[in-house]
Known about the structure:
Chain A is an alpha/beta fold and 336 residues long. The first copy, chain A, has 10 helices and 15 strands.
Amino acid sequence: MPYSGREIHLAARPKGEPQLTDFRLVEADVADPQDGEIVVRNLVMSVDPYMRGRMNDAKSYVPPFKLDEALGGGAVGEVVASRAEGFAEGDVVLHDRGWREYAKVPAQYAVKVDTQLAPASRYLGVLGMPGLTAYVGLLDVAGLRDGDVVFVSGAAGAVGSIVGQIAKLRGHTVIGSAGSPEKVAHLKDDLGFDAAFDYHDGHPVKLLREAAPDGIDVYFDNVGGDHLEAAIDSAKNGARFALCGAISAYNATEPPPGPRNMFLCVGKRLRLQGFIVSDHFDRQPAFVEEVGAWLRDGKIVARETVVEGGVEAAPQAFIDLLRGANTGKMVVQIAS
Amino acid sequence: MPYSGREIHLAARPKGEPQLTDFRLVEADVADPQDGEIVVRNLVMSVDPYMRGRMNDAKSYVPPFKLDEALGGGAVGEVVASRAEGFAEGDVVLHDRGWREYAKVPAQYAVKVDTQLAPASRYLGVLGMPGLTAYVGLLDVAGLRDGDVVFVSGAAGAVGSIVGQIAKLRGHTVIGSAGSPEKVAHLKDDLGFDAAFDYHDGHPVKLLREAAPDGIDVYFDNVGGDHLEAAIDSAKNGARFALCGAISAYNATEPPPGPRNMFLCVGKRLRLQGFIVSDHFDRQPAFVEEVGAWLRDGKIVARETVVEGGVEAAPQAFIDLLRGANTGKMVVQIAS
């Protein structure tokens, strides 16, 4: 019995900001599983900034999405048919075939999750890839040390909000930037940041000088551009930067201006280190133990922006994500 | 008996490119040494790009030069009076009081050198601070590994020429950039570089793509600006950059444009690490053993640009250095 559902295809490669016409809603049949496969009815899917890069036809660390095929990305769903050992109907799994109602998934790309412990969407956010990205970037890539003052940009987002809270839970002074007064209030009032600013209020160089008058030791970069310039400006000698993303550049049609003060990296002995979370899956057990415990104990706030409306709502959700409409992790509810 | 000599004072802080009027030649008496001091008659002094930064009134890793006082920097001279244990008249010493004919030097800032082993100027170049900078930056900061393809900018300069030759002696493919056809020929014909380009021939991004079609693993940056953009562009995954200097920015009166492709650092997992040689003096013994042996065996070519004309020639020499007039280490002969 094949499964009939809807999925989102890439109709055109976006130029600059994605448009709804770059996407297409398609009816598709999903065949019965073959040996080693499962069929999943998706409940919730992720929209992430990195997906914008995959919509370009450019060589990168992940291959580009193909035109006229379903997009992909993190999703959690219920197994409706299985011919794979260890998976049974009714299991809930995390996998990489989002943007569709029904997905056929090779079992090696699926992992069972426990929705008694945490709701499905958590495995796309604080307990999933964004959480691990925050954990690895802060602790391993930036090499967080006692006494470090931490600055994180995109601090109200899925990754940034976890970066800041891990640093606070470890006793650090934390400064964040975000894109609205409401987000800034969220950082200070709900997440316990020591200082935060709205980057619309002036040049980040000036705003960070005011927010961190004694300078910063660690910068977790989700934004790039003038935020990176600000972090270099305020960096103390020996500061370490974890370069995780550059959302300011993702929709750019012209190369964005780079930081004009790179020469300061020499005298300040700065280290800028780019990283990709998939190189660090070995840290998953330590991450789950530490962050999972904090979440269970209510010490971490993981706000979500849940978009209702089914899979057809995903393109607009993604466009809104790149505009900063989310606070915390943004997911699209496909079914319940 | 005091010593009478001439010295170069900083008359004004340069705006942009230094002018001769920013310097002043002054007659000065040097008093007899006190306990723990020596008086040195300088033979040869160094001009180095980093001195440009010290001419600004800006906080940096070394304090700014003071107006209406003698400039300073590496010099080698002969002891003419000593009240310090271990130093006798006739000893030749390396110290930090250049830009003058006679210098009174606290003994702890002087180190004896052997001019039988190598001429005095060598201790300002290949066997001195520039050589150690090359050694530490390439091996420790960039972490040179077997098989790495190395790109060095300012490759015909005091530091860059040693970087390239150390990499070649260790069996690497080496690409260099320089500022004239003569320098490019020197890199290829005399120093054994595998490829080299004159950055006046086009945008460095394009020139480096042609010179290193398979990409680079290590970049030793003496230039900054569009050279850094080129290195990011051609970097392979996991490439490491040693950020040593940014001569393209030193005379800038406006902040120079930064690399427009910093976002590539994420997907390529690049590491950019600034460094200052004075943090690495513990590597001096290993450096002297390895590089000293190569120099002795004639395996390293260390061309010098020696400016005659005495201490009064130093300001023009420094201006010319920033314009790239030198090949290899530039020194000013003060006396013989």
